[in-house]
C-alpha cells in the first residue's frame, strides 16, 4: 500500500468539502447553492421556493446523520485525516509504514467490518506524543510515541486492533450524530425556515459548512467516551484472538503506557480513559496479565521494522 501524504489528504478533503460530498448529494447542494445566491442579494421576504430549499437542506442533514452511506463515511474520514495530518505530520519512513499497514490489514480482515468504501489505511505520525486516532471509514493514525510503548508485535497489534474496533463500531459517526450543532441545523432547517429572511438563510448555510470543521475537531480534541473506548478494547481482544495474537498484548501495551503518559498532558491522557481503568475493565473478559511468548520470527520482524521508529 502506498504511503498517503498530508497533501493527498488535504487536497482530497478540500475538494470534497467544496463539492458538498461530505454530507449531501448533488440535489441537496443545488438547494444550498440557491439559498446562498438568493441570500447574498436579497434581504427581503423569502419565497416559497427558497423555503422549500432550506427545508431540503435540513432534511438532508437529518437523514444523513441517521444513516451514513459508506461513501459519505469515507469522505468524512478523509477530512478528519486532513486535520490529523495538519497537527501531526506523517512519519516518512516507508519501511515502518509498510510494516504497520501489513499488520493492520491482516487485523482488519479479521474484524467484524473487514471492508470499508476506500479500504483501511494506517499511518505513523512523526510525534513523540502518545496518541492514536481512528477516523471514520478506516483511516488510522498512530504516533511514534505510542509505537514506542509497544515492546513486541502483539502489543503493536493490540494498538491497531483497538483503533480498528472504533471503525468497526462506527464510533466516529456516533460522535457526529450527537453533535449539538447538527441538531441545531436540523431544527432550523425543518422548523424555522419559514421565518427566515435572506441573511438568516445565508447564516444557516455558512454554519452548515462550518459544522464539518466543528465535528472533526470534536473527534480529534475530545476523544471517545469511556464506554466507546471499552467497546473498542473488547473488539480488539476478539480481533487479536482471531488472528493468533495474544489478547494479553493489549494489557501489556496499556501497562507500558501507564508508566509513560503524563497526567494533564495534551496527548493520550486527555483523549482516553486512564490505562489502569481500561485494564480493570478488560480483566473480567481476558483475565489478569500473564506473560506470553511469541514465535521468534515474529519478534525478529518487529525489531527489524520498528527499529526505524
Can you give a write-up of this model?
With 309 residues, the chain is mostly helical. It has two domains: 6-70 and 174-221, Four Helix Bundle (Hemerythrin (Met), subunit A) (Up-down Bundle), CATH 1.20.120; 91-170 and 223-306, no CATH class. The protein is built from 15 helices and three strands. The chain has helices spanning 6-19, 26-41, 48-66, 70-87, 94-109, 144-147, 153-168, 171-177, 180-192, 198-222, 226-243, 248-260, 268-271, 275-286, 296-306, and strands at residues 121-125, 132-135, 139-143. A three-stranded mixed sheet has the order 1-3-2, sandwiched between helices. Helix 7 (153-168) crosses helix 12 (248-260) and helix 9 runs antiparallel to helix 10 (198-222). The protein is globular and about 70 Å long. The model is unreliable at 1-43 and 61-66 (pLDDT under 50).
Amino acid at each position: 500500500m502506498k504511503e498517503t501524504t498530508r497533501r493527498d489528504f488535504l487536497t482530497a478533503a478540500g475538494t470534497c468539502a467544496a463539492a458538498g460530498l461530505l454530507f449531501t448529494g448533488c440535489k441537496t447542494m443545488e438547494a444550498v447553492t440557491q439559498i446562498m445566491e438568493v441570500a447574498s442579494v436579497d434581504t427581503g421576504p423569502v419565497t416559497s421556493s427558497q423555503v422549500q430549499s432550506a427545508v431540503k437542506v435540513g432534511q438532508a442533514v437529518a437523514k444523513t446523520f441517521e444513516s451514513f452511506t459508506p461513501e459519505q463515511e469515507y469522505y468524512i474520514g478523509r477530512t478528519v485525516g486532513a486535520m490529523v495530518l495538519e497537527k501531526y505530520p506523517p512519519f516518512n519512513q516507508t519501511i515502518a509504514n509498510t510494516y504497520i499497514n501489513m499488520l493492520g490489514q491482516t487485523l482488519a480482515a479479521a474484524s467484524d467490518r473487514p471492508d470499508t468504501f476506500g479500504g483501511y489505511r494506517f499511518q505513523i505520525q512523526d510525534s513523540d506524543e502518545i496518541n492514536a486516532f481512528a477516523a471514520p471509514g478506516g483511516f488510522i493514525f498512530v504516533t511514534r510515541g505510542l509505537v514506542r510503548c509497544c515492546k513486541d508485535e502483539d502489543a503493536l497489534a493490540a494498538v491497531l486492533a483497538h483503533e480498528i474496533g472504533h471503525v468497526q463500531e462506527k464510533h466516529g459517526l456516533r460522535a457526529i450524530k450527537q453533535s449539538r450543532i447538527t441538531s441545531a441545523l436540523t431544527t432550523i432547517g425543518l422548523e424555522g425556515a419559514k421565518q427566515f429572511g435572506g441573511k438568516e438563510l445565508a447564516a444557516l448555510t455558512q454554519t452548515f459548512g462550518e459544522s464539518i470543521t466543528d465535528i472533526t475537531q470534536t473527534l480529534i480534541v475530545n476523544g471517545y467516551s469511556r464506554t466507546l473506548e471499552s467497546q473498542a478494547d473488547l473488539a480488539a481482544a476478539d480481533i487479536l484472538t482471531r488472528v493468533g495474537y495474544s489478547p494479553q498484548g493489549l494489557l501489556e501495551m496499556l501497562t507500558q503506557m501507564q508508566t509513560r503518559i503524563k497526567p494533564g498532558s495534551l496527548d493520550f491522557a486527555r483523549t482516553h480513559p486512564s490505562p489502569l481503568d481500561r485494564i480493570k475493565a478488560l480483566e473480567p473478559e481476558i483475565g489478569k496479565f500473564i506473560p506470553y511468548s511469541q514465535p521468534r520470527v515474529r519478534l525478529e520482524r518487529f525489531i527489524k521494522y520498528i527499529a526505524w521508529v
